[in-house]
Amino acid sequence: MKIVEMRVTPIAIGDPPLLNAAGLHAPYALRTIVELVTDDGLTGLGEIPGGSATLALLRQMAEVVVDHDPWQLNSIKAALVAKMGDGGTSTLKNVRPWETPRINHVWSAIEVACFDLMGQSVDRPVVDLLGGVVRERVPYSAYLFFKYAGAGGALGFGTDPAASGWAAARQAEALTPEGIVAQARGMIDAFGFESVKLKAGILDPDLETDAILALRAALGPDVPLRIDPNGAWTHETALRCGQRMAGALEYYEDPVRGQDGMARLRAAMPGMPFATNMCTTSYADIPGAVASGSEDIILTDHHFWGGLRSTLELNRVASTFGRGLSMHSNSHAGISLAAMTHLAAATPMLTYACDTHYPWQSDELIVGGKLAIEDGCVRVSREPGLGIRLDRDALERLHQQYLACGLTDRDDEVEMRKVEPDWRFMPVRY
User: Where are the domains of the chain?
Assistant: First the structure.
């Protein structure tokens, strides 16, 4: 079996006006879809965050991948590295979580597509190629955002008055603790999530803390809660707010910036578990994390850590150094969710429910529409490969949406200035 073609298609999927420390989500989230076609007629799928630099690199790498056997992952990776090196890294790595060495983005999409091909060729699911099923159902967490009213996509800040259920809840304004509680109830009612995460770092820290306490009061003591200010708080703010939330949080995610800052705060708050997807984001960061004691839990992401195999190896690192392990998420479609689910299903030491933005995205490009989330879980497919197929009409529609929307790179700061003209991104705001 040999790869005879690599197709690269940028798409745009509708995204509501969600707030975060970097600013505001645009009406569309950008993704890039990779298809690897083999000489025996199989097609393997991969998906990564969009962006002009990564898109250009992927298109350049098509000729490198062609003629390779998809089973020979080491040789494909070596050929890519020989051609592109690390592909460049933004100076904002570890400031904006989606910034990472571009080789990781490029390789993660290609590797997932190769695994999809491998599984199809031997009639086995990807989870079996990663070591086999540890859990049949992968738990995910409700992911809450402060947001402006609006449904995103073509509606932008507008809303659909005919919407009901979660479709209505997802377009509602949530700028207060009461709005966040209503959002949580809507998401839990629709998907059955049993844990809840709140994105913070954008509004007044005491208001965001109040929202966590309101969630605890509304949902009761048995629903695990997390908060993620994306490093936007000072030590003093994070300590004060953390003390207010003591006993209410399952873990405290990136309240401050950097391993040293996390270690200092963690030492000041014994008994509070700390998690990160910002200060420890590569294997090169592990020695510093161990030496400083910067976190208890690593939130990994196969798009950022260099693919499925590389991410799976973190299981041993976590076990060796006494770290918990879970997964970070970005705005994504079903190919990424399927890959995440296969990976999580094969990861023995998955100690916390995974993040996912999936309920926020209404567009999909796989046959049958959106993957089901039931009782807060996604069931790992036992079909060959990833267990999904590409809806070519939907792919074309979302590609045309990409061309029409005019976005080529994510820039939450620019989007925020459309609402607040004087707003500027600050790594530490409060």
Answer: 3-124+391-405, 129-379
